[in-house]
Amino acid sequence: MANFFTRLIDKFLGEPQIDWDEMEADLIAADIGAKRVLPLIEELRERDEHDAREIAAFIRGQLRSAFPAQLPQLPQPKDGRPCVLLLVGVNGAGKTTTGAKLGYALQRQGRKVLLA
After folding, report:
1. Are 104 and 115 in contact (CB under 8 A)?
2. Which residues, in sequence order, are CB contacts of 61 under 8 Å at separation 6+?
3. CA spacing 20 to 30 A to 75: which of 36, 43, 48, 105?
4. Distance (Å, whole) CA 110 – CA 116
5. Packed helices 34-47 and 52-65: angle between N→C axes, nearest 10 degrees
6. What's the burial of 44, exposed, middle or buried (CB within 10 Å: 0-12/13-18/19+)?
7. Residue 67, CB half-sphere, CA atoms under 13 Å: how many?
8. pLDDT on residue 51
9. Sign of CA dihedral 14, 38, 97, 110
10. Where is the SRP54-type proteins GTP-binding domain (predicted)?
11. What count of Cα atoms within 13 Å lies in the side-chain half-sphere of residue 116?
12. 10-residue block means of pLDDT along the chain (116 residues)?
């Protein structure tokens, strides 16, 4: 996501007028989601903000505050039974990477992991 903000700043830096429709499209294309993007763009328009660095900092702050500071705990297996996690998402959403990271974290906790 850091590269996204760098590209966003580079794209709009020095522009005398921000193209809010283009920025909205860029944010939605970055999989932030229209439900979050539309209020962000509306607030930026109301603020009349034109500095790309300030815009990126504002968006980054809003996105960070939308997520919990601490992630929820993984489910614990009961009575020696396996614990099954199902990862669902569209192509390119990061299911494989997330599964590998979860598997590694569970292995470090001394658990046996099977990825299928």
Report:
1. no
2. none
3. 36
4. 19
5. 140
6. buried
7. 9
8. 82
9. positive
10. 83-116
11. 4
12. 75 81 88 88 88 85 81 76 87 90 90 90
pLDDT for res 67: 77
What token pair was written down for 88? 């669902």
Counting Cα atoms < 13 Å in the Cβ hemisphere of 2 gives: 0
Rounded to whole angstroms, the Cα distance separating 47 from 31 reads 24
Burial category of 23 from C-beta neighbours within 10 Å (exposed 0-12, middle 13-18, buried 19 and up): buried
Pair 27, 59: CB distance under 8 Å: yes
Helix (H) or strand (E) holding 80: none
Tokens of 22: 């283009």
pLDDT at 1: 57
Enter the tokens of residue 63.
């996105």
Question: Which pLDDT belongs to residue 39?
Answer: 92
